[in-house]
Amino acid sequence: MVYNNSVDSKPGSVYIPPARRHQTPRRAMHEPAYLHIANTIADRIGAGEYRPGDQLPTESQLRREFGVSPATIRRAVNILLDRGLVTTTQGKGTFVRSLDIGEAVFRLQQITEMWTGGGDAEVLLLEARIVPAHGQVCFMLRLEPGDPLVYMRRLIKRAGIPLIYQVEHVLYDEHRPLVETQLQITSLDGLLMAGHAEGVPSGRLTIQAVSLDHEAARQLAVPPGSPAFCLEHLFRDFEGRPVSWGMFLCRADQFRLTTHIGVSPGGEEG
Amino acid sequence: MVYNNSVDSKPGSVYIPPARRHQTPRRAMHEPAYLHIANTIADRIGAGEYRPGDQLPTESQLRREFGVSPATIRRAVNILLDRGLVTTTQGKGTFVRSLDIGEAVFRLQQITEMWTGGGDAEVLLLEARIVPAHGQVCFMLRLEPGDPLVYMRRLIKRAGIPLIYQVEHVLYDEHRPLVETQLQITSLDGLLMAGHAEGVPSGRLTIQAVSLDHEAARQLAVPPGSPAFCLEHLFRDFEGRPVSWGMFLCRADQFRLTTHIGVSPGGEEG
DNA sequence: CAGTGGTCTAGACCACATG
DNA sequence: ATGTGGTCTAGACCACTGC
Lengths: 270, 270
Fold this sequence. Notes:
The structure is a homodimer.
Chain A: H1 33-46, H2 59-66, H3 70-82, E1 86-89, E2 93-96, E3 105-107, H4 109-116, E4 121-132, H5 136-141, E5 148-158, E6 161-171, H6 178-183, H7 188-192, E7 202-211, H8 214-220, E8 227-236, E9 242-251, E10 257-262
Antiparallel strand pairs in A: 1-2, 4-5, 5-6, 6-9, 7-8, 8-9
Helix pairs in contact in A: 1-3, 2-3
Chain A binds a DNA duplex through residues 1, 3, 7-10, 13-16, 18, 21, 32-34, 58-60, 68-72, 74-75, 77, 88-94.
């Protein structure tokens, strides 16, 4: 079957006629069945009805209980699977996982929301000039020492409080309008969009704890040696060549990452 | 339709006969079609074939191109969706997203792997005693001041290097065998399983940058004031009551979190 | 061998957006 | 009204596990 006929709707088929199709016997409407099923099972796990190590009802049993097709059950189980609540092994069954700290994932969005949430944040361009590459920058951006690149420093403030001190190196290439674009970025949206320009499809981010040096501490208005998150970023173009490298230094007293493991706390209806 | 007949296999149905069923015309075999399609599209985005803002081919076009059913295309698009590569809006289409730093997610597994990867890590129980609750612990575990709880300190070393200094408070309840279990945990697997015992289905984790105080710095063999990751954990039982609160202090020079955004770098076959 | 999860099909119906 | 994504069905086939 090549499956290239146009988008169906030939009357008289192998389908059950529209008679007695459940219009919306759904529980709260506008919640898909697969989501409802996934949430229901998750709630049972959270309530201890299904305990870690237990085998879940088989998909046949589940589809009988919920009265849906196999595919819908499969989709629900897949959701639980990548929520980390269960494991499945083919031929054996689906089992409730015990809680593993390693499952936790932290979303960087929590940090970016800090300066996109309220509209009163501002970006100050402290410095921007063309400098010759040297030291570690050469290695990160794969440049020869002396190659020109754009060096920039920015400060992000909110309600008068400095939050983030950013240092960035960008490839200097007169064939790309990158530089002009970069220099003008004193808006927030621009800083969030990686590379701040088109042609950047991928990047690597690293976060670690650091102590602030004198200059960074001065800009962030904290004592030297204060702790901070260091968010290092490296962006590449379509050919995989690095085009931008830098770091965001985030005051530790202003930033934290929080997440939940196991059954989510915002457990709505059951 | 109640859909409770047993698991099918009645011969002679509405299905196309096994004649000319593609056994494995799959590209590298053992790769599902939906995954292959998702990866193929992701590669095109990474190569700049589909640019940010562009509309992807409609699902009808895609299913013609790949010769699969609508459901398979949908599944592939869903994968791209929660990889953050595209957005979909009903009635309009599927569009390539421009890279957003906020999309990044960091997996805590990177940290736990540090002491589960090699087998030469060890856990030292520095202290364990029953103390009356006081101060912030009362608030976190919802206790009255003076209520008994178990106070523990542990040190995780690897290859002789101290990596993590852990402080933990656990509810003292003689009806639960929690205490005995807790005290014996000097193994790594036990530390990873949240709550270290059954009955803990959910938890909250927070990570932030801190400066080490004298005691922590001494245990970790670094100068006081050195930076560190502070991983705070709070676990709850099936009724939602907090049962355990503590923190892992991780030497900054030993731990970092790395992630990738956009098209993944380990892009295999195209 | 039967039971389980994993994949896929060929449609249908719905909700939404646009001209 | 047409085209888009979003959901779902009824059933098939496959791979794996365990008896």
